[in-house]
Design goal:
transmembrane helix, Guanidinium exporter, Small_multidrug_res, mainly alpha, Small_drug/metabolite_transptr, membrane
Length: 104
């Protein structure tokens, strides 16, 4: 169950990272409120997952999900570049996440 909680914590991390873009420097009230709520939920879920998962593993996977998801969201939502080097770098992060999960 902790892995599922951690996965959702990572999804909310993607949400708040993307939300930061929409807040326009925290000048837009609704995106700002949603972003802050996603931050709180993400960290709260991370804390719950860490009850039974090792700190280093949980934190690395949480940030990895956020990093990979944010790159994908940037490509889809904001037209950011899709170079082979960039995609290869994301693949390396994914490989590391799988390695951490398997080593637990």
């Amino acid at each position: 169950m902790s892995w599922i909680i951690l996965f959702f914590a990572g999804l909310f991390e993607i949400g708040w990272a993307v939300g930061l873009k929409y807040t326009e420097g925290f000048t837009r009230p609704l995106p700002t409120c949603l972003t802050v709520a996603a931050m709180a939920i993400s960290v709260g879920l991370l804390g719950l997952a860490m009850k039974s998962l090792p700190l280093g593993t949980a934190y690395a996977i949480w940030t990895g999900i956020g990093a990979v998801g944010t790159v994908i969201a940037g490509i889809i939502l904001f037209g950011e570049s899709v170079s082979l080097f960039r995609l290869g770098s994301v693949l390396l992060i994914c490989t590391g996440l799988v390695g951490l999960k398997l080593s637990h």
